[in-house]
Amino acid sequence: MKPTFQGSLVALVTPFRDGQVDEPKLRELVEFHVANGTDAIIPCGTTGESPTLSHGEHKRVVEVVIEAARGRVPVVAGTGSNSTAEAIDLTAHAKKAGAAGALVVNPYYNKPTQEGLYRHFKAIAEGVDIPILVYNIQSRTAVNVETDTLARLAKIPNIVGVKEASGSLDQMTQVILACGPDFSVLSGDDNLTLPLMAVGGRGVVSVVANIVPRDTAEMAHAALEGDWKRARDLFHRLFPLCRAMFIETNPIPVKEAMAMLGMIAPEFRLPLCRMADPNRERLKTVLQQFGLLKA
Questions:
Q1: Which domain holds residue 188?
Q2: Domain count within the chain
Q3: Which of 67, 74, 91, 155 has a beta carbon 3.0–4.6 Å from 40's, enabling a disulfide?
């Protein structure tokens, strides 16, 4: 049986201060997730602004998160690249640093064929013996990892699941049926978590968990335990907050929300920038309605 990643896995932001990675704040965020029941921490993904981290910074962020976690919660490092050799290097580093797994995005910009995608992930899995989650996000990469390709990849022993951000519940259901019960299908969209879990998904790689980790974990755990009424009630409460995380490009809204809550400085690296004032007001209203901010 393959190792299973399930529940609430947070797509962790990378905090900056004065243009540099804020390591003390990064450690604080890890403690926040340990204390609030997050099932795994994923640094250096889309939400972690990995495209604007240097290779040295990327590796250091992974190391800091693993050090801070101290084995109390698994760390699944983002190690994807549109260069297979680079992805292997980042994945090998993650394993050496002590990561429990690697989240590997499908190659972006160079638009490989399905055979190219298969060979890319196969080379990484064969090059580094670590549990791998495929990250399928066509909206950012221009290529969809099709169900037949995932079914082929699922036969590789250390490819253990997929973060499905295709936005298609139909495709996600096909993947669950094609890849079998030992393959973890995780939602890559907070607002589709419960629908996916209702058809056999195992959890979520969550953006909103950066600010409400306990609520997100409780919702996912209720679904895993078959307590659908509680899961639905929690999901309905979270839903407006989930939608607000995508008022602008992720991770702009979630980092702005964290700044409003005093968790991090409101810093980004270009080409990402501060949220437009009208959108910031919309976000503030949603945070107030949820009870995170006073009106």
A1: 7-228
A2: 1
A3: 74
